[in-house]
Amino acid sequence: MFYSSEDINKQNQYKQYLQIVGSLSNLFSDSSIPYLYYRIAEKMFCNAFDTQDLSRGDVSYDAKKGSLGIGLKTFLRKNDKSIQKIAEFNQDLPLYQDLTSTKKIHKIAELRNKRIEFTNNTYDITNAIYHCVIRDQGKFYLYEEDTKKIDIPSIRNIKTKKSSIYFDDGNYEYIFSLSKSTLMKRFETNFFVDEFDVEILKNPLEDLFNCFDKNLHTTMFGSQIIDTVYLPLYGSSKKVYSNSGLNQWNASGRQRNPDEIYIQIPKHFYNLKPNFF
């Protein structure tokens, strides 16, 4: 798989990107599940891992590194058996609309495989994977699996239900939506390459305003400040303790200097910026 083989610093940068964007979720939603727009996810992935961005092209992958093609997905975690869109065939409708269900699925599989072959040949790709960011309560999970062409001779269990046709090829389960001309695949996400917490800011608009206001001030006055952190002078529950923190001089044990204090660094700060100091 891709993620685990990448440099640890790139992994951390990628996770920080996701945590930062996820922390702004209240700009778009009131849910406790962090929000992540798929276009932003694609940009962050390509930037963190120095991959070629293919997401704007009409090809089978969203990114490429070396000879590896990478399809990028982001979706909610439900029962770890999520159905997700992998291809659209609106323009190919005349090629299959009048066929029987079995022949229709074989044609869709053929078209899908040809697209993969075209992308592989165009970009010199020899292997491909899906990289998925899965969203859950206060967390992101990262999942990867191989991208395979549909094994047409092994297609089986073809069933038509309402406006969709279900089938599998012994490797994966698929659904083809007749109304939307869309091919979907079931992702069984029962093993994750990484997982981490996302702290959603209560008032991200105010935090962004303060951030940009400080940056504007810095730009106007020519400061060389690269980054800034504001640490609380109080302890947990916003309480100033009598013999720790600002009052460490008053602690028991060894003899204390009258000027002895320390400032705590919250754990969630390390999660967002582990390399600040």
Walkthrough of the structure:
This protein is an alpha+beta fold and 277 residues long. The protein has six helices and eleven strands. The strands form two sheets. The chain has a six-stranded mixed sheet with strand order 1-2-3-5-6-11. α1 runs antiparallel to α2.
What is the strand and helix layout of this fold?
Blueprint: H1 8-23, H2 38-49, E1 52-53, E2 63-65, E3 68-76, E4 81-88, H3 93-96, H4 101-123, E5 127-136, E6 139-146, E7 156-161, E8 164-168, E9 173-177, E10 182-188, E11 194-197, H5 204-220, H6 267-272
Parallel strand pairs: 3-5
Antiparallel strand pairs: 1-2, 2-3, 4-10, 5-6, 6-11, 7-8, 8-9, 9-10
Helix pairs in contact: 1-2
**Main pleated sheet:** 6 strands, mixed
- Compute the separation of the termini in Å: 32 Å
Instruction: Write out the strand line-up for the largest beta sheet, numbering strands in chain order.
Output: 1-2-3-5-6-11
Mean pLDDT: 91
Tell me the total number of β-strands: 11
Annotation keywords:
about 280 residues, alpha+beta, six-stranded mixed sheet, 11 strands
Short description:
With 277 residues, the chain is α+β, with helices and mostly antiparallel strands. It is 28% helix and 24% strand.
